[in-house]
Amino acid sequence: MVAPPDNDVLWARALHFKHRDGTPALSGVSLEVREGEILAVSGPRGSGKTTLLRCLSGLVPVQSGEVWFNSVPMHTMGTLTRERLRRERFGWIDPAPVLVPELNVWENTALPLMLRGTGRRQAKTAALEWLERLDVGTRARRRPHQLQQAERQRVCIARALAAAPSVLFADEPTAPLHRSDRAHVLRTLTTAARSHGITVVLATHDPDTEALADRTVALLDGRRVKTVHLPPVSGTATTEGRAACSLSV
Ligand SMILES: Nc1ncnc2c1ncn2[C@@H]1O[C@H](COP(=O)(O)OP(=O)(O)OP(=O)(O)O)[C@@H](O)[C@H]1O
């Protein structure tokens, strides 16, 4: 086992993943994420973006290959150690908002901090600050069901940032937002991440989202590819309607 370079916060090698029903989701993906970097993972639906983020974040154990976080091997960790690492160092944003229905908005936002041992008052202050930045400060005392879907997603983003993770994994984080709101919310997320030194790994199939990242890693059918744009050639059955081909890297 060779340790990764020091300046990579995440370092993955030859990741393979198959779902329980045998569906292959990753076939030998390797990548590195530098400290403070905003990395977009792009690709069409079903290309393996979510599965890659789940493996990198320790949400699912690696079946084959290696994942290192700050030069510590995650692929050899037991479940409890991995869960503690995730709780203390990682944040996660799902493509649809997931909140605790019994808690109000600020309590939901403060929850990851309180689970880590931060006092209620300090956690509430941080939660309220981030809710303001995400333009949902006025909803702080409401329950999730009293909010619109797009507002609930803003709360999830505030919750992820309030906990000041080392790495934030965001899986299509602006999917439930109106198109006109997406750029603003994404800019808030990326600006906050940059100013707080949070590394971001962002799954997306939206070119506007990719444009806000420092670098993009493209996936297709569970493999890393580099997309080569070719002019469409009309009139042939095999090339009609295709503007790009992908080369494995
Ligand atoms: N729970 C599951 N059981 C079986 N196959 C799955 C499961 N989840 C995903 N898959 C399959 O694994 C492959 C990779 O899926 P994944 O969700 O990682 O891709 P994705 O790029 O994130 O797609 P999307 O943009 O639709 O979320 C796809 O073929 C998908 O159909």
TrEMBL record:
Organism, as annotated: Streptomyces griseicoloratus
Keywords of this entry: ATP-binding, Nucleotide-binding
GO molecular function: ATP binding; ATP hydrolysis activity; transmembrane transporter activity
Name of the featured protein: ATP-binding cassette domain-containing protein
Family note: Belongs to the ABC transporter superfamily.
Entries under Gene3D superfamilies matching the protein: P-loop containing nucleotide triphosphate hydrolases
InterPro entries from the UniProt entry: AAA+_ATPase (IPR003593), ABC_transporter-like_ATP-bd (IPR003439), ABC_transpr_LolD-like (IPR015854), P-loop_NTPase (IPR027417)
Domain ABC transporter per the UniProt entry, residue ranges: 10-246
Pfam families associated with the record: ABC_tran
GO CC terms: plasma membrane
Lineage, uppermost ranks: Bacteria, Bacillati, Actinomycetota, Actinomycetes, Kitasatosporales
Top-level taxonomic group: Bacteria
